[in-house]
Amino acid sequence: MNETHFGARDLSLAYGKKRIIEALNIDIPIGYITALIGRNGSGKSTLLKAMARLIQPHGGAVYINGQSIHAMPTREVSRRLAILPQHPQSPEGLTVEELVWHGRFPHQSVWGGKRKEDRQIVQWAMEMTGVSEWADRPLSSLSGGQRQRAWIAMALAQKTPLLLLDEPTTYLDLAYQIEVLDLLKRLNETEGITVVMVLHDINQAARYAHQLIALRDGKVVAQGTPSSVITPETLESVFGIQARVIADPVTGHPMCIPLSSASRKKMKQPVALGQ
């Protein structure tokens, strides 16, 4: 399916009586990577869940091509977008290939059965994520980074134009974080998949995303390219930190260098003449 628009209008979300997001408006650029950033409790994961129709809005809606996803059949939504939650769970003993097959459920008939097309897509998803060699291994036997790639393969097997991920690098060491983010970048560039993800690491968000959406208290503080969002003023407003922003020596993207209290005091001290 060719998606031309994905976003939210006047979206309000709450848990019980506690309002998390109020009348929020965002547009997700199709064919690009968007990262949601902000402090804990800013509403990032709640917004992502609403965009995947896992949470019912108190007001407004999320739209795909002008149609509210909350009015669409569940199977139809599953064919349009896939979500990888922060802590995905699978049955004990499930193999990698069995997990990836779960991604084909929205496309299978009520009579079940594994069609040739489904088999080809499952194989493609495993090859794209580099998990084919572990197809028969239990998911529980894999390392954290390998497991995350298997889950991404399952999401890919849904064959959706939109892929949503909630903190896909959480609990992974740095090498696996880069591996997962490189994979998402490659999927975006080679397959044209629109990626929306929640990230905690500001510098990784600036390096891998085309667009950033910075949230604070359920409101959009800034939205745009990394260069327009990662500024000292926005970082202080969103994260409550003072920081310097420099060009990443590898990519040229903005890089945040947080200042410690000692650094801030030193910067304020007058420099004696002759030093």
From TrEMBL:
The encoding gene: fhuC
Pfam families assigned to the protein according to its UniProt record, in alphabetical order: ABC_tran
Protein's UniProt keywords contain Transmembrane: no
Name of the protein in its database record: Iron-dicitrate ABC transporter ATP-binding protein
Gene Ontology MF term list: ATP binding; ATP hydrolysis activity
Keywords annotated in UniProt: ATP-binding, Cell membrane, Ion transport, Iron, Iron transport, Membrane, Nucleotide-binding, Transport
GO CC terms: plasma membrane
Membrane topology value: Peripheral membrane protein
Keyword Transferase in record: no
Any GO BP annotation: iron ion transport
Subcellular location: Cell membrane
Main location: membrane
Organism of this sequence: Polycladomyces abyssicola
Domain ABC transporter: start-end pairs: 6-242
